[in-house]
Amino acid sequence: MVTLTEVEDEHFQNTQAGPEVDDDDYSDTDSEISNESDYDPQDETLAERLYALRDIVPPTTRGWISSKINTVSNATWTALSFSGKATWVITTSALFFGVPFALSFAEDQQLTAMEQEYNMRQQGSELLTAGGDQTTADRIGAALGDEKDAKAAL
């Protein structure tokens, strides 16, 4: 019968020169799974999960994706900046030109209303002071009759 005897090499019996290494820090991950961890996958955010996947994507693809994201964000920033400036220009133009126009239009309307009121007062005073032999009712009827004749002529 054959018996096996382990013979250790002298090279493995001598320790290496260098710092003392504690072998307890190293463990074999295949031998057992530790259940003592406080890790809970439910506490992980979506951003943390996506950040953990960064090593799966090759660096060239990551660079391409990053450049596309930068291009889109720059275009969005430019569009928002331009629209904000355009809104500012339109608003200030409306204030500088629209408000004075609205005020002058309202003043013109007020002057027109005042002229109409003045003309109505003139007509009223003419009716009251015209001709001493007619009564006020006859004068109003005559004025209304003149209007009826004018409408019929049209």
Automatic annotation (TrEMBL):
Extent of the signal sequence: none
Listed Acidic residues bias regions: 20-40
Region (Disordered) residue spans: 1-40
Membrane disposition: Single-pass membrane protein
Main location: mitochondrion
Highest rank taxon of the organism: Eukaryota
Gene Ontology CC annotation, any one: mitochondrial outer membrane
Pfam families listed in its UniProt record: Tom22
Keywords in alphabetical order: Membrane, Mitochondrion, Mitochondrion outer membrane, Protein transport, Receptor, Translocation, Transmembrane, Transmembrane helix, Transport
Any one Gene Ontology BP term: intracellular protein transport
Subcellular location: Mitochondrion outer membrane
Keyword Protein transport: yes
Family affiliation: Belongs to the Tom22 family.
Name the UniProt record assigns to this protein: Mitochondrial outer membrane translocase complex, subunit Tom22
